[in-house]
Amino acid sequence: MKDGALVGMGGFGLVGIPENGVLAMIEKQVKNIRIVSNIAGTSDWGIGLLLKDRQVIEMNASYVGENPTFEKQYLNGEISLNMIPQGTLAERCRIGSSGIPAAYVKAGVGTYVETGGFPMRLGSDGKSITQVTRPREKKAFEDGQEYLLEEGLHVDFSMIRAHQADKYGNLRFRKTARNFNPDMAGYGDVVIAEVDEIVDEIPPELVHFPGCFVHRIYKSPKIYHKIERLKYSDVKPAPKPDAKGKGGSKDLKRQRIADRAVKELTDGMYCNLGIGIPVTVANTVMGKVDADLQGENGIVGMGPYPKKGQEDADLINAGKETITEAIGHSHNRSSDAFGMMRGKHLHMTMLGSLQVSETGDIANWIIPGQKVKGMGGAMDLVTCGSRVVVVMEHVGPGGTAKFLPKCTIPLTGKGCISTLITDMGVFEYKDKEGFVLTEIASDATVEQIKKLSLIHICRCRR
Q1: What pLDDT sits at residue 237?
Q2: Contact 118, 212 (CB under 8 A)
Q3: Distance (Å, rounded) from C-alpha 388 to C-alpha 348?
Q4: How far apart are the first and last CA of the chain?
Q5: 87, 104, 177, 332: which has the highest count of C-beta atoms within 10 A?
């Protein structure tokens, strides 16, 4: 591997990352690396170690919100960032490995992804813009929907992680460690697989990825089993104070929102849970509704947090929290997870937001100049045709309004929200009326809701 290489890396959070490969890159001091990855690691592990050592000059990723080192470098103009919707990233990897030059996708229509102009690199003053993303070609098809043309990806090196390899190069992944790895594997000139163990032969029906895609295999000299967000069902964390310093009130608000969100689920439903408040629904729904909960990291059938001592480093939700598996669960690669969404195989998706507009727009991925998180899978989810339920606290830090006439930060999707659930009430979006307040929280009043919402509430009914 030489300086300036374009390197693709598998993994979701810290699960399924080629951790020993990253350590080898640090030891070799490969410089000016351009990386394609779903994530940017954490400050002290994975890609984050390369960033800390200033070996990376460009990140092509969907979500970088867990790494303050990266955020600081980007805001200081030290590194380039090309944000790619997560499902689009997975599909661009998949088609790149399949000899398909490009594909049309719906994610990003009406946003920076379509128009281009997103600040890919800032000046050293942190304000001027020295490089922006390019616009995408848009086309309408017979279904009446508009799509963006996205090109397949190709890299110099693909670095992936698997649980097993055999002497034929076949690979087998473990639980949610599959994620981006199969998609990242096929589109590199050289595909390098780090594996936990090497066996003589993996039974054919258990092969997840055939050896014809793989060029190099090495056994991990050490398996670290890092867990980014350790969560237990039988251990309650210390309450987090709200903005006014009231202990536990923020947690209580979020739990109340999750409790109400469960009522949107019905038996037999397939529902995606996004990061933040949505993933906590898996801990609330058990025993109430027989629904399959899907995660964009490659699981259908999420269970609640594990009991202490039963956590598994290869089993997480989209929020990188430890989870369990529900009866009838399955694991899949990232492109299949988003294929379920685009193919309308899910009934509903729940996600959080920073802002919501009176026309049903959602903005939840960046606050320019302040906070860089990334859209993750949100742009894919809000355009997939399933019902979109947004769950969020009604007001932001310091009482700032989040329910606005028009979003003031870059959009995730336009006119896509079906239902909004906050700690103050439930709002249903109607085409001719806008948002209609259909439920009021027991400790809220219509007057309070109107005061804290900068939009017109069409009518109210309990």
Answers
A1: 63
A2: no
A3: 6
A4: 64
A5: 87
